[in-house]
Amino acid sequence: MRKLTYLIACSIDGFIGDPDGDASYMYPYVVGEYAEYLNAEHPDTNPVHVRRLVGTDGLPNKDYDTIIQGRASYDVALKEGITSPYAHLRQYVASRTLGESPDPDVEIISDDLVGKVRELKAEEGGLGIYLCGGSVIAGELVDEIDEMIIKSYPVVQGSGIPMFGSGFALTEFTLDDVRGFDNGVVVRKYSRKR
Q: How far apart (Å, rounded) are the C-alpha atoms in residues 79 and 21?
């Protein structure tokens, strides 16, 4: 069984973007020791244009071979004219409004997101599945998430888009690892409590 990993960046108070979804305030923190860590430990999570920039393009995938992202996350790339931002992965975009995919390498999941994720998780072999952003889809998939890697940036927003857009339900995870960086970023890794 393959794992679904929600790897997400957020503020100390758990927001993944401002009320309009902008998370660009986090970009200045991706430097030095922390940037080296991301490139070494999570190279698959970089879009193709970043992989080229940091010299990891062409390397075999380390942890993931599939990505699922929400419409808002995908729109960040589309606004830059990039229709296949994670060409090194099988790409799925959860959207009820996008309709037809703008790229043959990107499949739109317009209904039964949970069913599709279960199907992907049941595949034999392969690497893991990277859940990239999307408060709403993270909320829909909370019962399918096997692992969370939370990159907490040293800022408090007060409001914005939460990590999970869902109703109240306690879901327990076990802390596996914590790593702090000189710029104040803390990365925590959790696995679903069984």
A: 14
- Least reliable range by pLDDT among 39-43, 105-109, 131-135: 131-135
Query: Is 122 in a helix, a strand, or coil?
Result: coil
The overall pTM is greater than 0.85: yes
Residue 115 above 80 pLDDT?
Answer: yes
Is residue 50 exposed (0-12), middle (13-18) or buried (19+ Cβ within 10 Å)? Answer: middle
Residue with tokens 């698959």: 44
Which pLDDT belongs to residue 113?
96
Q: Is 112 exposed, middle or buried (0-12, 13-18, 19+ CB in 10 A)?
A: exposed
Residue type for 147, please? E
Given a contact cutoff of 8 angstroms between Cβ atoms, the answer to whether 63 and 71 are in contact is: no
Alpha helices in the chain (DSSP H): 32-41, 48-54, 71-78, 113-121, 135-140
Per-residue confidence (pLDDT) for residue 134, from 0 to 100: 85
Could you give the CA distance from residue 115 to residue 117 in angstroms, rounded to a whole number?
A: 5
Question: Any bridge partners for residue 132, and if so which?
Answer: 69
